[in-house]
Structure formats: structure tokens, C-alpha cells
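CHAIN AND CONFORMATION:
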Amino acid sequence: MTDNHGDGGARLAPVTYLPGAAPADDAPARWAIPLESTPDDHDRTETPVEEAESEGPSIEDAEDLLAKRLRRSALSEREARAFLVQRGIDGSVAETTVERFTSRGWIDDAVLAEQLIYAGTSRKGQGRRAIAQTLSGRGIARDIADAALAALPDDDDDRALEYARSKAHGLRSYDLETAMRRLMGQLARRGYGGSVASTAARTALTEQRGGSGVQFR
């Protein structure tokens, strides 16, 4: 900016100093052209940095997880899907992974049903009803479960009696009525129905207590 004087000459405008930066009173006067102002911080624009979206677990990750899990024990298709989803695998990826394992025979609900039936009858002394509940609880489809149960021999009476005999000795300290009630409860928890359970319990307790002297109400 210039300052016009009466003599027609032009002079530079005096510099305006920031507070605290003015020269001492005895300093010589200085004249200068002011620098162009710079934009304030709020006028500056920054280029936004886009964060790369992290990709979720891949099918390969899902297959690795499921393969490690199956080394411990067999799973049904439903259990396998639930396992993967619980580990953070996307639902569609989990579905594709289970389909691949099923096509390779690594997951087979029919085979699993046979294994569960064998364990129920041979090791646990379970009846048909309890085994059916186990299959349903493991997510075995109804048609697969029915087919597997159809191959099961109709020998609930024999298995119930065998189980009752294994428990009757432990009830010898109870009176007959209490022993009968407890034994029928144990049979019911193994999946044996009312008539099957009562017949097995009565027979086992009669044998254990000497036969003819036992009186049932």
C-alpha cells in the first residue's frame, strides 16, 4: 500500500508488527513490503485417507478350522455350520464349506446316526425313544434318523431288562416299593416306556430278591 504526499511522491506504508514483535522505540524505522498472508489452519483441506476394509475369513480358513475340529469327533451338518459361524465365519462361507465336506464324505449324517445308535444301545443301554432324542439333538434330519432307527432291532424289552438287572443290586438296601420306583425312573431316563420299564424293573427286582417271596402292589 502507498501513501501519497503533497509533493506528488509515493512512499511505502509502514509495517505493522505482531504484538510483542514491535521494535524498540529507539530502533530505526523500517519500511517493507508485507508478505502475502497464508491460509489459516481451518482453511487447509486434507485428502482423506481411506482405510482398507479387512476381509473376513476365507473358505480356506473355514476348511482348516473345520478339519481340525473333526479330528476330535464327528459332527452333523447342522453342528458343523454352527461351529463355523461361532468362530466368526460368514454364513454363506460356512454353508459352502459344509457342502464341500459333505461331498467328500468327511461329514455324513447317516454314518453319524449309525454311530450314535451303536453307542446308545451298546454302551449306554438306551431305548429307542432316548436314541431318537439324541439324534434329534445332534441335528440329524428326521428322514435320516427314521431310516437309521428302522434298522435297529426291536429288542427294547431285552435291553431294558439287561439294564434293570445291572442296577437292581444297587437298590437292595431299599424297600421293594422304593426300589421299584427308583429303578423305573432310571429306565425312563434311558428312554424305555412305561410298560417296558415296569416289566423290566419287576423282573430284575424279583430275580435279585429271591423270586417267590417278592410281593408287588
About this structure: The first strand starts at residue 2 and ends at 4. The two ends are 123 Å apart (CA to CA). DSSP finds nine helices and two strands in the chain. The chain has three domains: 59-103, 108-154, 156-217.
